[in-house]
Amino acid sequence: MKPADAGVAPSVRPLWRQREYMLLWSGQLLTNVGAQASGIIYPILILALTNSPLLASWATALRMVPYLLLSLPVGALIDRWDRRRVMLVCHAARFVAVISVPLAMAFDALLVMHIYVVAIVEGALHVFFNIAETAALPRVVSPGQLTQATAQNQAGFAAAAIVGPAVGSWLYQVVGRGFPFVVDAASHLFGAFAVWRLRSSFAPVRGRGPRPLRAEIAEGMRWLWRHRVVRDMALATSVLNGINAALPLLLIVLAQERGASAAQIGLVFSLGGIGAIFGALLGGAIARRLSFGHAILLSVGVRAACIPLLLLCPGPWTLGAVYALASLFGPLYDVVQFSYRIALIPDELQGRVNSSFRLFAFLLNPVGAAACGWLLEHGGTPWATSVFGVLCVTLALAVRWDAAIRDAVHPHTQARSV
């Protein structure tokens, strides 16, 4: 049996009736709820321990560094390994890493360095899991449903962004500081169970014999660099992700300056999640009505307009409303670029090309997070907001004048018209 035969679902069946996709999606949904519940607490906890935005920003930056170091070799390894097995091992190891935080709290032994180590371990495991999960998606979804599946994935991420911060901040403030991490750890157990139930074959495609890892990495990088739209989107996504990496700490400090409690800060992020879930629900429909370039420009342009508005917000509700508007078109960006890329990449190169893309896409994440902490500590919220606002406007102008992005046509649409 060929791997592709085992995993492709009939295109006539809606996604919610496809067992394999729903298991993969629901496991990811639960894991993302847990990650969102604890993710908002990391900077709040470090701010409570140190009162330093710069030290708080390092937790976010360190979690992203493994992508820069591991992305390329992991992509090549994922194309050699069983993707289901990789996801199972990652869930188990992430459970151990996350549960160590509340255990250290219980013995009054939690140090900032411990949080940093967990951030690095979590980041490294996320590299393996994310590339394996991305490479597994074409095995459970037919090519014609990739855009719809991507939109549903984004809806799940957005739903997690609503529930997770609200649950995490409420547990932190009302129940105890360690409980958001308990929820995160438990979510990995549920995620592992969902992956374990998958029946499709996720074994690597058998082709040529094993080659040196460096040669396989180079093949994925060459493929990406030859396809200009994918390459330019990787560079644009790098800048956008660097800006996005700065926003959580910026929002937390802005909210605290306006007297918001931990629960109210959770409200800000939950309102952003509501915007994102509406964007995810509308993303597939909007993507079908707009060209590739117009969809990307709309998403980046709205975020560029929203960042300066954060300085005018008097409290958490208005901060959340502006963040919701900025988040509304974020899923559109992800649906368009992700479905374009994954439909174009051959199955045997999925791990390597996606890891090459992610190397560029996440290159500026640690820089954005650390720079935000430095700007907040030395220049305050007006200076930090202005810098990232100008960067976002510059990116929107670059996207507007990039002919490859402006004229791109989705490969599935192109195939239907031939």
Can you walk me through this structure?
- With 418 residues, this protein is mainly α.
- It has a single domain, classed as Growth Hormone, Chain: A.
- Helix content is 81%, strand content 0%.
- The protein is built from 19 helices and no strands.
- It is globular, with a radius of gyration of 21 Å.
What's the gist of this structure?
The chain has 418 residues and is mainly alpha-helical.
What is the number of helical segments per DSSP (H or I, 4+ residues)?
19
Report the end-to-end length measured between terminal Cα atoms.
30 Å
Range of helix content: over 70%
Largest sheet descriptor: none
Quick check: average pLDDT?
85
Strand content: under 5%
Q: From the alpha carbons, calculate the radius of gyration and give it in angstroms.
A: 21 Å
CATH-wise, what's the superfamily? MFS general substrate transporter like domains
CATH fold category name: Growth Hormone, Chain: A
CATH class: Mainly Alpha
Number of domains: 1
Topology:
Layout: H1 3-7, H2 19-39, H3 41-50, H4 53-78, H5 83-106, H6 112-140, H7 146-175, H8 179-196, H9 213-226, H10 228-257, H11 262-289, H12 292-309, H13 316-328, H14 330-344, H15 350-361, H16 365-378, H17 380-400, H18 403-406, H19 411-417
